[in-house]
Design brief:
This protein has 212 residues and is an all-beta fold. 0% of the residues lie in helices and 43% in strands. The chain has a seven-stranded antiparallel beta sheet with strand order 1-2-3-10-5-8-11, with no helix packed on it.
Length: 212
């Protein structure tokens, strides 16, 4: 087994997007700070409603996918194709903008914590003009598996071998609607516990530490 070497550390930078939502951007924070097909990664995290209440009113996307993963809070999605969805803790939204979509993401709370991530995935050139698509994935459909050495892992996308069992996330290589073949996992580890995940040869990878 070949162990990959960490090549670069990207410090997240404070910024604002939408109608003034405060967030921290790591991938995409500076020109060249992305790893194809990963274009951008934003973390939004605040207990102050002034930091998120204005939300992300209607705006266009084209040529890529966005994956929103909620940890805390309640967000409502709506787009010009008639798709509507609500994201709560543990929920995932997988949106393929492709040839174009206009959507909004608006908080459905006026107090409390709002926390989550949005990852932008580039689409292959031949698929940038295909029809847009949208999928809500409730938390109950994201498998959570206890690790033998302690801790747990949620498999959002891809297929992961855990304790001799193949655990498939709701988006995986057998999903014909998926343009990419990602492995997206949320790993919770106790102190001094190690975790190993296989990465397909030729695929780029990154790790984001959000609670240490």
């Amino acid at each position: 087994m070949t162990t990959r070497t960490l090549m670069h550390v990207i410090q997240s930078a404070p910024t604002a997007d939408g109608a003034g939502v405060k967030l921290r951007r790591s991938l995409g924070s500076q020109r060249g700070l992305h790893v194809d097909p990963f274009l951008m990664l934003d973390e939004f995290y605040s207990d102050n409603p002034d930091d998120y209440i204005a939300g992300f009113p209607a705006h266009p996307h084209r040529g890529f996918e966005t994956v929103t993963y909620m940890l805390d809070g309640h967000m409502h999605h709506e787009d010009h194709l008639g798709n509507r969805g609500d994201l709560g803790p543990g929920d995932v939204q997988w949106m393929t903008a492709a040839r174009g979509i206009i959507h909004s993401e608006m908080p459905q709370q006026s107090a409390g914590r709002m926390r989550g991530f949005q990852l932008w995935l580039n689409l292959p050139a031949k698929e940038k003009m295909k029809p847009a698509a949208y999928r809500d994935i409730p938390a109950r459909d994201v498998p959570k598996v206890a690790l033998p050495q302690g801790g747990s892992v949620r498999v959002i996308a891809g297929i992961l071998a855990v304790a001799g069992t193949q655990v498939a996330g709701p988006v995986n290589g057998h999903d014909t609607n998926s343009s990419t073949d990602p492995l997206y996992i949320d790993v919770d580890l106790p102190a001094d516990v190690e975790f190993t995940a296989p990465v397909t040869a030729g695929h780029n990878a990154f790790i984001f530490l959000y609670d240490v």
